Amino acid sequence: MPIRKGELVSEVSSFTVLLNFHGDLAFFLKSKVSNKIVERRLGEKTSVKDVIESCGVPHPEIDLILVDGQPVGFSHILECDQEIDVYPIRSLPTLFHENRLQPAGIKQFIADGHLGKLARDLRLLGFDVAYDRDAQDRQLLAVMNIENRAEKVEKADVIEKLEPLTRIHYEHFRRCTGCRQIYWPGSHFDKLRARIEGIRATLAAKSRSENQR
Fold first, then answer.
1. Which CATH number fits the domain 11-99, given the four candidates 3.30.565.10, 3.40.50.720, 3.10.20.30, 3.90.1010.10?
2. pTM for this predicted structure
3. What is the distance between the alpha carbons of residues 137 and 70, in angstroms, rounded to a whole number?
């Protein structure tokens, strides 16, 4: 199967790699396999990242790669028969903490102008997301250097700025420390929460189905 362009070096004799995708990574696999193991026959030196992504698994979902039991980075070059274990973020292995591929502890995000729906869903899940659909790239870069965030505030502290019906029906509020905009879970909140729970249920059911095969 052709591999996407990447860190390709010189041609070598063909060889085979076996990829074992752990956890919920099977959700991304292009081919439906029962044991989450994919075999690839390669005819040239290829980066492990390119081989993994050719199976359909995006690299931001991957936190640890072991080649013949040893941790490697995305740029590691494959050139002979090898077995590869691919682990997702928050995977179970307790070894190789220093070789994890994804940064840990990210709590704040900046969403580009076309990601409004994603920004809304992330906020619903409790993530701190800065979003402005009209923002230019240079403005987004500036935001990255300023730790503005929405902090909890007492209703009494913002009540003068609330609309009459908002004062009556809502009790919990947050205020951006940068622009001073006030936020609260409005009437759409339950619909959004139901949507997120539906997505979670679908993913959980698919994961259970893959594990039972």
1. 3.10.20.30
2. 0.51
3. 39
